[in-house]
Amino acid sequence: MVMGVLNVTPDSFSDGGRYADLDAAVAHGVRLRAAGADLVDVGGESTRPGADRVDADTEIARVLPVIRELSAAGIPVSIDTSRARVAEAVLAAGADVVNDVSGGLADPDMARVVRDAGCPWVLMHWRGHSREMRDLARYADVVADVRAELGRRVDEALAAGVAADRIIVDPGLGFAKTAAHNWELSARLPELVDLGFPLLFGSSRKSYLGRLLADADGNPRPTAQREAATVATSVLAVAAGAWGVRVHDVRGTADALAVWRATGGPRLARPGAQGDRSATGRHTTEGER
Ligand code: PMM
Q1: Would the CB of 5 count as within 6 Å of ligand 1?
Q2: Could you read off the pLDDT of 106-145 as tens digits, one per residue?
């Protein structure tokens, strides 16, 4: 499953400002679909580390018209929001899936909205809003901790009456995670797949890839030039058992996954005991992932 990213925001780290106008946003959603997106993920609030929040009315004003038009065109849409009121408004306008980066933590009403709509709900691992998340990247064992916390989000969703077959989990790369945490989660993804729910993986253009590909002076690779790394991480995630990937440039990843399928969908061997590999990458403090 390939989810194409459509940020209708002035300040997202990689495509901020580009699709703020309705026609441009809808046209890009149509392009993502034509390039192979199974789902177009529309977001109206940047979750970039350090970003300020926008109010719910602003978020709704940004995303609602775009979702109405994409949905009317028959394009499956998810809403990237952690606010129940936003989700409720856009589900009524045709959205199919709620992609909640807070995993239900940010808004106690979200579980009710999702349960009543009966729609799929992406529960992403999250520890706090953008302004505070840098200080929350502390783990004893990032994979074990993310797994346990995601397990709690799942339990809360089930207790609220959300059907098990509607739940999707996501490790939330870059959300209260350093580059080293992102690499560790990627390397040990099967331990999260083992939770037993479809797993969504979002590495696209994030700053740990920019740092990996830094130039000789240590300058991170610019966001727009992280595509090959995005494709590689996305295919490796699917080969490790991920159900879906969330990417900005759909064509490259969709093509690579077509190749992966044509070769029989080979699976990576399950890694050995945890702690037997060293994580790579450096810590990030800048305002992107
Ligand atoms: N990353 C971002 C936003 N929403 N949703 C899910 N489920 N998983 C992610 O990793 C994720 C997300 C941040 O990146 P963006 O600026 O490209 O939207």
Answers
A1: yes
A2: 999 999 999 999 999 999 999 998 888 888 999 999 999 9
Give every CB contact of residue 109 below 8 A, 6+ residues apart in sequence.
Answer: 84, 85
Which atom of ligand 1 lies at the shortest distance from residue 122's CA? 7
Ligand 1 centroid to Cα of residue 80, in Å, is: 8
User: Does the CB atom of residue 233 touch ligand 1 within 6 A?
Assistant: no
Q: 121-142 b/e with 16+ CB inside 10 Å = b?
A: bbbbbbbebbeebbeebebeeb
The token pair at 289 is 């992932």
For residues 121 and 164, what is the distance between their CA atoms, to the nearest angstrom? 10
Q: Clarify whether 177 is annotated catalytic.
A: no
Q: Is 3 in the pocket of ligand 1 (CB under 6 A)?
A: no
Q: Which of 188, 206, 251, 289 is catalytic?
A: 206
- According to DSSP, the β-strands at 121-124 and 77-80 are unpaired
pLDDT attached to residue 134: 80
Report the predicted TM-score, pTM, of the whole model to 2 decimal places. Answer: 0.92
What atom of ligand 1 comes closest to residue 101's alpha carbon? Answer: 5
